[in-house]
Amino acid sequence: MRRADGDLANKRLAAIVALALTGGVFLAILAPALPGTWGLAGGPPLQAAATLGAVLLLGSFAAVLAKRIGRSGKAGFHAHVWLASLGAALVFAHAAGNLGRPPATLLLLLLALIGLGVWSRTAGARLMAGTFGQKRGAFRQADPAARARIGAVIQAKQAILAALDASAEEGTFSLGPRHWATAPRAAFAYARLAAEEERLTGARTALPPAQARWRLLHRLLAWAFVAGLVAHIVIVMLFAGYVADGRPIYWLHFAAWDF
């Protein structure tokens, strides 16, 4: 896939991910050789790696919202790839020695996110280009009733848009966090109309399921990972007694509560 100006080439994307994961594996192999608790997941080096990795991964999660707040989408994507790759390497190094414990599920979610993200930029992008190249909608007979309803939906969207962003154009406008925070009712109404317009135009029905749903799956996996990561941090740092289960608590923590 040819790279447009400012885009991240697929080969470079694959190299970044591969090098990051290789670095994570190398650190995971090296860690057990450290003396005492330093080679354990909660020891100072690996706990620090996990902390930095979590910060990078949360930063990667936030970077994809760059376009939604008026920043460069390409710069946000670059940051997303770099932060996710480095964060994944550090988290993998931290967790590799405890793959039999429940938090290892987070690694599976992370690998699924990485795999789906790489697929979307490589094979998925080629499939999408082929689907758009067919232009199926151009050969479909227009339904007068549907066209009238679509027109009414667009007019309703334009009316609501005045309350969300008076300077925006309906054809290119996209809801962002700022709109949901400042005018939640208008944002909800606009999102509902946009979903109805999508249904009337058949925008998603013309796409194969993998192309139509991969982005939703990616978001669900991301939210599940963030929720699991936050839960893991809270339990390890505040409920250290529960995690230790009678063993010595050797990691830095704030409280040793138990259930």
Element pattern in H and E: HHHHHHHHHH
| Counted beta strands | 0
- Uncertain segments are 1-5
SS element count, helices: 10
The Cα radius of gyration reads: 23 Å
Oligomer: single chain
Shape: elongated
Label the structural class. Answer: mainly alpha
**What's the story with the biggest beta sheet?**
none
On the 0-100 scale, what is the average pLDDT?
Answer: 82
Notes on the protein architecture:
This protein has 259 residues and is an all-alpha fold. 67% of the residues lie in helices and 0% in strands. The chain contains ten helices and no strands.
Defining key terms:
259 residues; mainly alpha; 10 helices; elongated
Summed up:
67% of the residues lie in helices and 0% in strands. It contains ten helices and no strands.
